[in-house]
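Project outcomes to date are best conveyed with an example. Our students and postdoctoral researchers have been running inverse folding experiments weekly, and each run begins with a structure described purely in tokens. The record below, which covers 750 residues, was selected by the lab manager from last quarter's runs and is presented without edits.
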């Protein structure tokens, strides 16, 4: 009985909860550290902000008071209207000495709103002039500042500190500026300018009202307050001093105590973090020791198992428990990997073996057997039709010479992968295996739901796409033969045979890259036996040294193109040609036979080893025979008897129809002994006199039979035979047919 067990993962939850608590402990530490860092940054930012604000405030105050100072100094130096008050010559003229200077003082107060009061003091008679009245010094209520100024030795005094004085008749806190006239001697009198401390406070208030968090405190040189806000104590203070007025400014922010606390804590935050770290470290050690017990239990079990099985999963001197566990797991994984690799290799060879047996027809399979086999090979099995095609690497010898074995395997793998991808993109499944070194068999399996044309058309399109891809990406050519579609798996070997047969007839069809089996089922193509006869004629022409071999060669290939010959049949034809040439030329002198062996037989074998089209084969063979003919002609020309034999051949060609032509007749015609004539013919022509004469007569008879309607008896007499029976026997011996049968064959072709 089998069941499904749900593990609660108690150990996992225990570890998670243990370390979550540590995490929750560490988070406050991180937050405190962050707070300290932010507090320190905020404090530095606040200090810098206070400094900039205080500098701006002091600069504004300095500018206000400096403008008043400059205005007074400028009037003393440049304006005679106000200075008329001090002139003795105008003292009796009230308008110039009183009215105009008073008006000027009013103008100055209007120009500088910060000025609370301004008045002139004249030494000569102790008179004080205000914008609104004239007093003697004894009657003037703010005489104290005048008397103090008269007692000073310095003529260039700064603004005075905050003092108690009078603004009109009211007491007030004033800040005064005293200037002597003239500026550099001070003998005439004084100009005194008063600014209320209250006005300065209002000015500062207007400048700081936009920053409610700031608190300002301003004191003069002697520490008297000029402007002090509430809650001045407890600020995060920064203090600055004016170079012109000599005033001190203390600037701070609201809640400065909080900044002070954070600043104090920031000095010790490293110690706080270290304490938290040590506490967390101790906590982790304790939790780990507690949760390690299940791991120790696993290690003990592995040790016990190793001792029982007498295996060494680990070294006994090792104290790393996780290495022990890892060693056990690695051993299990290694075994699993070995089993998986063995399974894949076994599956690969099983697939390859089954594929070969299936395509060769060695295993006829019923539908149920087919389904079981494909399932065991982990392949799909439900298809409507099958089409087999064969992909051949063209000029395989050049392919192996160009690429290393590794590159050959890689290129074959690429070609197989491209076939599969193109098939899948067309909605079909394909199974491809290399049956030989140069041929890839592809079984295209088309499902029932596939749309499109006929199965053969779909595979033809696949082959065309493969050819185009190969031309674009690879540096070698391929050809594809396609069989007919079949509906049952046990018929696939028929489609495979048709694909191979179609590929075999590729040269006869002009070497198209894709050949379907239906293309070789053409009734208008016929077979001829004449190529064999032309081979015999070619051999005889080469043996005798005549140029007639070119005509026989051309007629042979004309017959080949007129029929439908497979590659194997063409290979057999070339083998027959080599055999017959060897037979005909073996009787020639040794130097001629050696030329055939070196220039003919070896080159003929090389030319026939690799070709793709009939035209290519014809070109290669013609080049071989031309070189052989030229070489044999050179050898014959060097022989002393060559000219004599050629003359005899010409004589026989003219008098072959003479029934009395014989060896004796020829010896008398050329004045040479009959045995010498026979020997020369044998050496130069490779055949005796009688056989050569018979060949000439039969060749002429063939022309007459093919080109005329004369009777066999008349032709017998015309070619030099006296008796028809002798002619018929000679004709059949050389041609293989009787003259009558030969005429029927020629007339049938016509």
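After processing, the design step wrote out the following sequence:
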């Amino acid at each position: 009985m089998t069941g499904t067990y749900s593990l609660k993962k108690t150990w996992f939850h225990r570890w998670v909860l243990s370390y979550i608590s540590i995490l929750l402990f560490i988070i406050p530490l991180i937050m405190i550290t962050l707070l300290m860092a932010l507090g320190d940054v905020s404090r530095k930012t606040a200090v810098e902000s206070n400094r900039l604000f205080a500098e701006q405030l002091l600069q504004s105050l300095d500018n206000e008071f400096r403008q008043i100072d400059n205005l007074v100094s400028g009037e003393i130096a440049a304006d005679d209207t106000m200075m008329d008050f001090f002139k003795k010559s105008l003292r009796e003229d009230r308008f110039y000495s009183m009215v105009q200077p008073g008006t000027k003082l009013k103008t100055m107060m209007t120009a500088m709103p910060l000025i609370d009061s301004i008045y002139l003091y004249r030494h000569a008679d102790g008179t004080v002039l205000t914008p609104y009245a004239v007093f003697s010094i004894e009657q003037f209520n703010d005489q104290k500042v005048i008397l103090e100024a008269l007692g000073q030795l310095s003529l260039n005094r700064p603004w005075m500190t905050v003092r108690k004085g009078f603004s009109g008749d009211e007491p007030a806190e004033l800040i005064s500026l005293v200037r002597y006239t003239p500026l550099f001697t001070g003998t005439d009198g004084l100009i005194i300018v008063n600014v209320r401390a209250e006005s300065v406070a209002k000015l500062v208030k207007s400048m700081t009202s936009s920053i409610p968090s700031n608190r300002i405190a301003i004191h003069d040189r002697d520490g008297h307050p000029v402007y002090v806000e509430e809650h001045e104590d407890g600020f995060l203070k920064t203090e600055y001093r004016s170079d012109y007025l000599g005033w001190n400014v203390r600037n701070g922010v609201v809640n400065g105590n909080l900044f002070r606390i954070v600043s104090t804590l920031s000095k010790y935050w490293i110690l706080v973090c270290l304490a938290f770290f040590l506490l967390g470290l101790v906590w982790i050690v304790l939790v780990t020791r507690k949760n390690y017990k299940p791991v120790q239990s696993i290690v003990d079990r592995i040790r016990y198992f190793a001792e029982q099985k007498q295996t060494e999963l680990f070294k006994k001197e090792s104290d790393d428990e996780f290495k022990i566990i890892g060693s056990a797991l690695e051993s299990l994984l290694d075994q699993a990997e070995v089993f998986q690799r063995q399974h894949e290799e076994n599956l690969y060879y099983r697939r390859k073996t089954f594929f070969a047996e299936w395509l060769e027809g060695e295993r006829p399979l019923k539908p149920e057997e087919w389904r079981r086999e494909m399932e065991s090979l982990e392949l799909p099995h439900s298809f409507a039709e099958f089409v087999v095609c064969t992909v051949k690497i063209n000029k395989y010898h050049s392919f192996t010479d160009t690429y290393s074995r590794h590159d050959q395997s890689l290129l074959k793998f690429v070609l197989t992968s491209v076939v599969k991808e193109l098939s899948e993109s067309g909605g079909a499944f394909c199974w491809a295996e290399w049956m030989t070194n140069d041929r890839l068999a592809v079984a295209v399996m088309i499902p029932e739901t596939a749309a499109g044309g006929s199965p053969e058309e779909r595979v033809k399109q696949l082959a065309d796409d493969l050819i185009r891809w190969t031309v674009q990406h690879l540096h070698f050519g391929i050809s594809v033969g396609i069989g007919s579609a079949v509906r049952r798996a046990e018929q696939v070997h028929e489609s495979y045979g048709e694909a191979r047969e179609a590929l075999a007839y590729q040269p006869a069809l002009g070497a198209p890259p894709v050949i379907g089996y239906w293309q070789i089922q053409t009734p208008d193509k016929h077979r001829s036996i004449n190529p064999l006869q032309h081979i015999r004629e070619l051999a005889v022409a080469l043996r005798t040294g005549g140029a007639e071999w070119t005509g026989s060669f051309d007629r042979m290939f004309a017959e080949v193109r007129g029929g439908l010959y497979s590659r194997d049949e063409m290979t057999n034809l070339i083998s027959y040609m080599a055999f017959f040439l060897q037979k005909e030329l073996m009787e020639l002198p040794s130097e001629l036979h050696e030329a055939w062996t070196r220039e003919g037989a070896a080159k003929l074998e090389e030319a026939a080893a690799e070709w793709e089209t009939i035209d290519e084969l014809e070109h290669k063979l013609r080049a071989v025979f031309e070189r052989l003919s030229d070489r044999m002609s050179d050898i014959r020309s060097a022989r002393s008897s060559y000219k004599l034999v050629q003359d005899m051949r010409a004589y026989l060609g003219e008098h072959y129809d003479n029934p009395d032509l014989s060896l004796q007749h020829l010896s008398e015609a050329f004045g040479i002994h009959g045995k010498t004539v026979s020997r020369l013919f044998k050496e130069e022509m490779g055949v005796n006199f009688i056989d050569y004469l018979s060949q000439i007569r039969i060749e002429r008879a063939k022309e007459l039979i093919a080109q005329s309607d004369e009777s066999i008896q008349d032709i017998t007499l015309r070619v030099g035979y006296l008796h028809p029976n002798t002619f018929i026997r000679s004709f059949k011996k050389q041609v293989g047919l009787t003259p009558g049968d030969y005429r029927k064959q020629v007339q049938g072709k016509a």
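The chain has 26 helices and 15 strands. The domain at 364-520 is CATH 3.30.70.270 (Alpha-Beta Plaits). The training component of this project remains on track.
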